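Posted in: Structural Biology > Protein-Ligand Complexes

Title: Requesting predicted complex, beta-D-glucopyranose in pocket

I'd be grateful if someone could produce the 3D structure tokens for the following input. Sequence and ligand are given below.
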Amino acid sequence: MVSTLKWWESAVIYQIYPRSFNDSNGDGIGDLPGITERLPYIADLGVDAIWISPFFKSPQRDFGYDVSDYCDIHPEYGTLADFDTMIKRTHELGLKLMIDIVPAHCSDQHPWFEESRQSRDNPKADWFHWVDPKPDGSAPTNWLSFFGGRAWTWEPRRQQYYLHNFLAQQPNLNHANPAVQAAFVDVAKFWFDRGVDGFRLDAVHTINADAAPYADNLANPSFVPGALPQQQQPFFRQLHDSAQLNQPSIQRFSEAYRQCADSYEGDRFLMGEVHGDDARKVSQTFTAEGRLHATYNFNLLAWDGLSVSEMRSVISEAVEAFNDSGRLCFAFSNHDVPRSATRQLGALGLDPSQQQAMQLLLLKLESCLIGSTCIYQGEELALPDVRDIPVEQMQDPWGIEFAPAFLGRDTCRTPMVWRAAAPNGGFSSAASTWLPVAKSHLARAGLDEAERADSVYRHFADFLGWRKSQPALVSANSITNIGGDEHTLSFERISDAQTLRCHFNFKTLAATFEEL
Ligand code: BGC
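-- Reply #1 --
Done. Output follows.
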């Protein structure tokens, strides 16, 4: 069917975590040639696009979200030639390719930071947020880091603090400096010139683009410690949009990026990962005229899962702000939260025997919402979260900081399995892999499941084939009559050619569709 929407307005996007997808050279770590080898598996599923988490040169302190060269490939993942082969094959299979750009911070081993930290007067002196201590020697503001502790670290060479909203090894770039912005536009051009169709822009709300002096964050008057340890961090006791995050100056970045994307042919897409004290307002601000095309909606990703009524509220609230537009992207899973097959099973009070049917229902639901949706690798197999990784084998710095109270993000990042009977489930021929392969995943190995008639993969592939022929789902972005009860969720999708009633029953785990 020929749609008048741009590709990204209704795309089903498959997210790949490259370290854990497929290892082609037997070192226990996934790589780009490994992705190329599995592209037919992704194309056969019937998705429209791929988003690959960072594969740039990086010391891997935050597994690629700490970049030391934005225009080269991390040696464990391959070479630029491997990237060119991968993108060529992706396009031949009719898929779009999105990559993950990390503009807010780089690695402390990036040459920009290595130079900047040496003195107060070198050519890169002003590329990061360097601030003098308070008269008593303490940090300039009360800002805290997402991963625990202060957002400021002392640099003895400069006798100053630098800002990092995540790890101390991820210094925040100073986007108040026009040279930093220009460098990031050059990064965008480098990858657009190589043919990428769009970017997922990492943690854009954590870009700091204001010049010092910085104000303190205000206390969050409605802070209630959440049930989960990661929700009890002091970080959540503050209101961040009062000073640290989401200041209006960030939009200089989104406007520069949009201008760059618009200077290329072929609907290059910019999707921002944004968050804030008022997430809806932040998403609207980032997608205002001349800024990003869409933002990533976090609200279906709740750490402890959502009841049907909560899902309905999330959808209704997002739709209130974005109906009739494709300027948002929903997701039930990604590389930062426990896998939805486990999270949602608990939240919906279902039995483990229902896990696959429930996951299929979630996949269908998100593919019927307005805008785009991101499916995380393994969701098409209903892979459960992996909670038995021995502490000494954990890799995620956030989990290592909190374990055993909170296991961090390794639980959703274990290697994909491809063939139950192969060593390491077919992920790698190495003696050991960077995170252990989960035994609980072997019965749902990707290539095995793609061949099995009754698998979640096959049913979802059939569903995506059907979806492509429904004008209300792929030719318009209008949704209405969101309703249902404790166990059911329903809505109507409308285009000029069709009104489609979509009904999801979380008791019988059936999705039904009726043309009105
Ligand atoms: C990414 C995380 C990463 C963080 C810092 C995000 O939101 O999704 O995986 O740790 O940004 O870059």
